[in-house]
Design goal:
This protein is an alpha+beta fold. The chain is built from 20 helices and ten strands. The protein has a four-stranded antiparallel β-sheet, with helices on both faces. A three-stranded mixed β-sheet has the order 2-7-8. It has a three-stranded antiparallel β-sheet with strand order 6-5-10. Helix 12 packs parallel to helix 15 (about 500-520).
Length: about 675
């Protein structure tokens, strides 16, 4: 049965496992079961729909599941889902009708289904009391009791990869309504994106769309400031522009927090919270009242030793982070600073603009290599640090990699802006960097995945031709699942262990934000460049996800995380750098005297810093309806808990009498 026939019957394959093609050399099945056959049998025993697909180089095991199989896995994982009672409760398959369905009529979102698939396939263990012999390429491995089969096969190299598959029908719908839809340049079907990719990718595109819409105001204002001649009022125009775009960006991030809270509340139906937490595995300490005084003293001594160990570990971890940060900073200073200074001096000595443009292009290509190398060093260093949660580890990595990119991307610009103090040269450098860097980033971001995919297809056909030399097999054709497998995974470019391709997208956005904000007074037109780039970036990123990459692993994060703190840091930096630029424009002789103009700039800087930290209390971070809904859910949860407690203590009659008395008191 073909994929199209399966889809017409309502069965869509969502997960695939890549295994080697064994051909005729599968060993003697009488002496033991082949490991792939065992895997397929176990998957079917667990209720999954399995279909095997032969590719040119590998064999693929495609998986689908009914709602009942996914529902029982969701119940085992204790997903909390919204009910018609107005509150979230642990999912139970037998009570499935009580839970609210998604807009498309399904019970579970893609993120939930993916976690259920993982629970099922990685939860297959040997339940027998004896080992099972697995045959693989004339070798034998023992599958021990209680051992996970899939993890065993991954360690053996039999299962090469487990990856999600695109849903062709939904993918084509998104191509039409999102990637190829230019009727509204910033409009995006966020609900459909969330349903197909998960909450984190939907949050990124919500942020990118809102940021691009808000960029239109400073872009228009920057065009007016850059292109119009205000005569004697020119020196007053730049300070006005400075105060305008700082107020704009502060308001933008306050309204983004409100938008993020509203989107999270509206799309919460796609995101289940699991009751399982890392604290569940911790053992509960017994009550001290059960022990005599001698045992209490021993327990107190043990607690003091444990506290000392925690303190020692805390300080050791902190010193390790300081050492790693110092290593990264000193490495950048020692290796890249001479290169940056040489580029800056050479740029000043060149006369022709064409030569300067070519030098900047070569410089940015070299910077790409330096920054990637620095990012990989940061990834390796962070492996030796200890973190309480995975979120803290991810945030630490974001801060380290951004620190590397920040220093490597802006050292040369700071030299032109603050040390050389040549505003004309600074404007040329900003124009060239904005144009060339955006072109290079878009080429690398879209061309490399496509070229990688084409090269893998070519290599697969060539290898098959070598194996089938002399046989008339005809033209090689790739199946749909094999094409998915050959596409690059949506990972970060600085390391495949960072399985989040949004890392690169956010990093690119942050570096652009820093470039246009920190030097806005020198080049107000930069906002227009950024707005045009972001309009194309929305569609380019959508096309990359839908056509050039594998379907990413869904992630449930509802905010932009540590990147928000980096944006806030860049706002403060932009206030300081633009104040310094205005001083450079005002004090052309370099005397740095505290004249009335310079004093006004210093006062303006303090006023803007006050605006930055004062607007956060003026504009609420959460809409009123979100707060009301959260309080309503909390109240309903408290009432249900009260009913259950009274019912267990006094029975149904007493429970209802107590509830009636509570209601009468409220009415009074």
């Amino acid at each position: 049965m073909t994929d199209n026939e399966r889809e017409q019957e309502g069965c869509v394959f969502e997960i695939a496992l890549a295994v080697p093609k064994w051909g005729e050399n599968r060993g003697d099945e009488r002496e033991g079961a082949h490991c792939v056959d065992v895997l397929v049998d176990e998957l079917r025993k667990n209720g999954l729909i399995v279909e095997r697909d032969d590719g040119l180089q590998n064999e693929f095991i495609k998986l689908a599941a009914s709602d009942e199989v996914i529902g029982r896995a969701a119940a085992a994982l204790q997903f909390r889902k919204p009910t018609y009672l107005g509150m979230d409760l642990p999912f139970e398959w037998e009570e499935a009708e009580a839970f609210i369905r998604l807009p498309d009529g399904s019970l579970f979102s893609w993120c939930e289904r993916f976690h259920c698939y993982n629970h099922i396939i990685y939860g297959i263990v040997n339940t027998a009391e004896s080992v099972v012999v697995l045959k693989s390429d004339c070798k034998e491995e023992h599958w021990k009791p209680g051992e996970s089969l899939l993890q065993k096969l991954e360690a053996m190299g039999v299962v090469k990869e487990v990856f999600p598959l695109h849903d062709e029908k939904k993918r084509k719908q998104l191509l039409k309504s999102w990637a190829m839809n230019w009727s509204d340049v910033t409009h995006q079907p966020i609900d459909d994106i969330c349903a197909y990719y998960g909450m984190k990718i939907a949050t990124y595109f919500t942020f990118l769309g809102m940021y691009t819409r808000w960029l239109l105001f400073p872009a228009l204002l920057g065009l007016v400031v850059q292109l119009m001649d205000f005569g004697l009022l020119q020196f007053a125009v730049l300070p006005f522009f400075f105060m305008s775009f700082i107020s704009w960006v502060v308001l933008f991030f306050q309204f983004w927090k409100r938008k993020n809270a509203a989107i999270s509340a509206r799309l919460q139906i796609y995101n289940s919270a699991s009751l399982e937490c890392e604290y569940r595995s911790m053992k509960t300490e017994p009550s001290l009242s059960r022990f005599p005084s001698e045992h209490m003293r021993k327990q107190n001594i043990d607690r003091m030793k444990e506290k000392a160990n925690f303190q020692r570990e805390e300080w050791f971890t902190w010193l390790l982070r300081v050492r790693n940060d110092a290593f990264i900073i000193l490495s950048i200073i020692c290796l890249q600073l001479p290169f940056e200074l040489a580029y800056a001096h050479l740029y000043e000595d060149l006369g022709a603009d064409v030569l300067k443009f070519g030098l900047t292009a070569v410089y940015l290509l070299v910077i790409q290599y330096f920054t990637r190398m620095g990012g990989k060093v940061a990834v390796k260093l962070i492996k030796y640090e200890k973190f309480d949660t995975a979120e803290n580890k991810a945030n630490s990595l974001v801060y380290k990699v951004f620190g590397v990119y920040f220093m490597q991307s802006y050292i040369g610009v700071f030299y032109h802006a603050l040390l050389h103090r040549n505003i004309t040269t600074l404007r040329q450098v900003l124009i060239q960097r904005l144009v060339i860097s955006e072109v290079i980033e878009n080429l690398l971001e879209n061309a490399i995945p496509y070229l990688s995919y084409r090269f893998k297809k070519y290599r697969a056909v060539r290898n098959k031709g070598k194996r089938d030399k002399g046989s008339s097999t005809g033209k090689s054709r790739f199946t749909r699942v094999e094409k998915e497998y050959l596409k690059p995974a949506y990972n970060a470019s600085i390391g495949q262990e960072i399985e989040d391709g949004l890392f690169d997208d956010f990093l690119e956005l942050v570096l652009q934000f820093g470039m246009i904000m920190m030097f806005a007074c020198a080049f107000p037109l930069a906002f227009a460049f950024a707005a045009m780039n972001n309009i194309t970036e929305i569609r380019a990123d959508a096309l990359k996800l839908l056509a050039m990459m594998r379907r990413p692993t869904p992630r449930a994060e509802e905010t932009i995380g540590a990147w928000l703190n980096i944006f806030q840091f860049l706002i403060v930096m932009s206030i300081c750098t633009n104040s310094a630029l205005l001083v450079c424009m005002y004090d052309r002789e370099g005397n740095w005297n505290l004249s009335p103009g310079l004093a006004a700039i210093l006062v303006m800087e303090h006023v803007l810093l006050f605006i930055k930290f004062g607007f956060s209390s003026i504009v609420p971070e959460e809409p009123a309806w979100v707060r009301a809904a959260r309080m309503k859910n909390a109240t309903q949860a408290e009432q249900v808990c009260t009913r259950q407690l009274l019912k267990s203590l006094y029975g149904d009659e007493k429970c209802f009498e107590e509830l009636r008395s509570q209601e009468s008191k409220k009415d009074a």
